Structure formats: C-alpha cells, structure tokens
Fold:
Amino acid sequence: MRFPFAVKLALAISILAVSATGLSVFFVFQTTRSMVIRLMGDRLKDVGRTAQFMLEEDDRAAIKKMAKEVNARLVIDEALKKKIAEAAPGDQIDSPLPPEFIKKTMLSPEFIQLNQFLRRLRAGSKQNITYPGFLSQKFLSDERDTDKPQIRYSYLIIATPGYEDHNVATWLVDSDYEAGPDEKGVEIGLLYKVKQKSFHNAFLGKASAENDFYSDSWGTWHSAALPILDQDGSVIAVFGMDYDATSEANRVKVLMQICFAIVAASLVLSIIVALILARILAKPVRALREGAERVRARDFSTFVDVKSRDELGILAGTFNNMVTEIRDYAKEMETLNDAYYRFVPKEFLQHLERTSIVDVKLGDQVQREMAVLFSDIRSFTTLSEALTPKENFNLLNQYLSVVSPVIRQNQGFIDKYIGDAVMALFPESAVHAVNAGIAMQRALRDYNEMFRMNQDPIRIGVGIHSGLLMLGTVGEEKRMEGTVISDAVNLASRLEGLTKKFGSGILISNQVYERIDAANKFQCRYLGRVRVKGKKESVRVYEVMDGDSDAVAALKVRTMAEMEQGIELFTEGKFRDSLPCFEAVLKVNPADTAARAYFDRAERIVKKPIGTTLQVA
Structure:
C-alpha cells in the first residue's frame, strides 16, 4: 500500500508526538501502579509484623504442637507424590490426614485459640470498629459490603516434610475453615502447591509481599506472607494474608483509561497539525512523485514543472535531465538485456551481487548454502542412435522445454545444460529442489503419454544434494563463464548416476532428507549408504517416491519396512539374514530394482567359494 508524502510526514510528526506523550504517560502510570502495589505490600507486611509480635508464647507453643502432630500423621506415599507433581502451582490437594484426627484437632483448644487470633487480625481491617469478643465465621453471602474486612483471608501454613524447597506447604489453621454456601472450607492438613514467591521468602525467614495483583472468581487480591519465628530464630510457620485489592485495582484501571485518553487526544491533535503542515510542503514532492511514476511506466517524455527555487526546484531540474539520459540509455539496455539473460541466469548475477553482466569480472565468487539438482536422460545414446542430428536437437529441446519451466516454478534456476543433463540450483530451500524433481517426473510422464505414444518414452534420473558451494566465474579475460564448484555438485551428480542402479526416479542425500523430513509431506525410503569418490565417509541415500506412479509408489510403501530391515542387515554384514527381507519385497513388487540389486549382491556374497575374495562396492 502506498502512502503520499504528506501522509508520511504527518505520520512521522504524529508518531513523534504520540511517542513522547505515550512514553511519559506510560512512565507515570507504571510508576503510580508500582507505588500503589509497593505501598499495599508494605502495609500488609507491617500488619503481619505486628501480628507476629502479638503472638504469645502459648500461641507459638500451640503452633509447634499442632505442627508436630500434623507432620507425625502426614504420610506422603507415591500416589500422593504423583498427585502433587501433576498439580499446577496454586492448586490445592485434599488433606491426606485421617478424618478422625482432622475433626479432633479442629475442635482442640489450640486450634480454636489460633483461629480466633486470625479472625481478630482479619476483623481489625474492617471499617467499623467492634468489640473483640469471640468471633464466629461470616460467609461472603452474609457480609455487607460496608462491613467486609480489607484483609479477606488470613491463615497459617507450615513446611511439608520431604519438600525442602517449599514448593508444597501444609495448611495448619485458616480463619475460614468452615464450609458455607459460597465457600469451601479449609481443613487442617490440606496441601497447597505454592505459587506465590512471598511464601518461599517467608519460609526462608523474610517478610515478603507479591509484586502484583492477582484475580480469581472472588475478586482481585494482593498477598503477603511473614515468618513466625521460635526463640532460636527458626521458622515454625508462615502467616499469610490476602488483601481485597478490588478498589485499588479499579482505581489503577481508571488511571490507565485516563492515560489512554490523553494519548488518544495527543494523537488526534498532532495528526491535525501535521496534516496542515505536510499539505503545504508536499505539493512539489507530489509533482516529483507523479513524474517518477510516469518514468517507471516507461514514459520518458515526462517533464516536471516546479517553480520553486529551493532544493526541491534544483531536484526537479536534475530529475528532468536524468529522464533524458535514461531515455537514451534504456533503448540500448533493452536490446542487450534481452540477449544476455538467455545465456546468463538473472539469479546468477543476483548471487554475485551484480546488477548487469557488464559488471561481472573474472574471479567473482561467492559462497552459498544451496541445494543442487542433477538430472539426466537414461539411455540417451540409445535413443539418439536412431535419430538424425537435427532430430536429436529437436528431441533434446522438446525435453528441456518440458522440465526447465518446472525448475523455475519451484524457485530454482538452471546453472547449465550439459548435453542431455541439467544442473539446477535452489538457493532458498531443499524442499523446493525435491518439489522440482517430483514435478519434472510428472511433467515428463504427461509428455510421454501425449507425444511419444508409439516411441520409447523418455525417462530421467534426478539426484539432489544440499551443501556449501562456490558460485563464480572461471576462464580468462577474453572468454569466461559462470560455474559452480563444490563437493555438493559432485555428490548430486553421483546420486543421479545411482538412479540407474536402483531403478529410482529421484535420489536424495541424508542432508536433503534431514531438511525435508520436517516438512512431513514426502514419501521417502532408505536405500543404504554409498561411498563417493574422494570422500572418506559414506553417504546415506533416500529415494523420493512421490514422482513415481501411484501404483509403483503404493508397492514401495507397502514393502518399506522389509526393505529397510534388509538394508540394515546388509550394512551390518549379515548378508544371509538380509536375503529373506529382500525376497519378501520382490514377492510383492518383482519390479523393485533396488531390492533386486541388494538381493543379487547379498546372494553372490553368501555363495562365494571359500578362499576367494569378492569385492563389495
């Protein structure tokens, strides 16, 4: 989508203004929000510290007694460990303690004493002051909005044996342990998969509050946790509080809406001012743009009339002179371009970073990762013997006119024709090369059916490898050509040669297989390892069956498991064991040339006379 210069200028000014305003507003909002959360956290920690000092020695003794009794009866077996491991942070696991013990403990004086302490602490956060007598539990449905405590939940938790990292805590006492119509009761011994960082810090002896609000179905909350210490400074329990932060969160939300409104108003105002300014400045630029568009449409009679004497006027005069030169130069280049693009691929120049063939110099070279495709007509000599030289050229050009467009359609380009062989490069992806090989096989099959019904069909083999290669120019100053130098080229040519031995349409190397395997859209089978001349390590070879006819591909897929098992046994030197596998393949698909080649080779090795040496290629 094109944008006029006036719009771009207006956008630039608007973006600058809005960015400055937005960053400032964002800084104010974030600072205010962080300050609110920090102050709330500090307030909760102050309440918790006060509560910690309000605990008498008998309260601490009650905590230790209950913790000892709970830990003595808390049995965490393998099933419970698995359940804890599968729970998400913040999940609760029902208490594994015996129901009789839970009931008895929750009726004990120690439990009631600590529960009353938690309820008094919570009641102290109400707006209305009441007499601190015995406090019974009030459910959410029973409390009036004006009488709800700000600290909605308060509780004591202890460390769970076997979880020294404190990612699991055990509930000891909760201010709201009774079940109600809108709340689930919290039993002693309930296990909690710790989510809050403040809980971890509290178990380590640090008073801590969360760094942000969190929301659930009951509202928006802010939590803090503080350690309860023994005389020797050890943590005997953690005191937790959940503060009802709905009001504060709503105020922060209102502040955010105000900030958005300020940014929106700044945007509207800046756009109005910027458009007025841009409209004044953009008139000569618009004339130049329209002139450039006419030149791009090859209207070289274009003339831009700008009467201003500033830099834009000078630019317009330079533009008019440039158009005159382009008009003369374009006529010459059109003729030249049409000629040399038939001999030198555009992609070759692009990879050498040359805009024209006249810029190419001897020795220009670049290293690239590419896929290399080699294809060759099988038994071309036999086909050509029955033809005149002219008929040979006609046949070859007909064949190349079928396969060459397919290569370009799959993002490849032809590096060179070597007689009846084609060498093509695919810079972007090995998947493109494999798609091209498949399309070449299918296009050639259609060509044979349409034009060579009464003649021998043309069959080709395709080899594909991927790797680093050097793309450049060789020769001398008076005669040079583009070429590719790489082991990848040699291996692709070697794979194409192997298609005759294996009777395959397309063979690819392991490097290509690893790149296309993720695409998960090609049918491939493993055909073993081959050793390439000049290389110490053998190369894994795969056959791509998508280019075969549906019937042939179906038979190969059906016998793929037996074929691969036979090849593995053959590779391990278990030639006799491999024979039944290849026999099973040939029984289903007698035309499987690769299976026949392996079977014959294994049979020769098994039957060789004792004392003779059989060379295995």
Q: What stands out?
A: The CA atoms of residues 467 and 488 lie 6 Å apart. Residues 610-617 have pLDDT under 50 and may be disordered. The chain has three domains: 55-244, 368-544, 549-617. Residues 368-544 form a domain with the Alpha-Beta Plaits fold (CATH 3.30.70.1230).
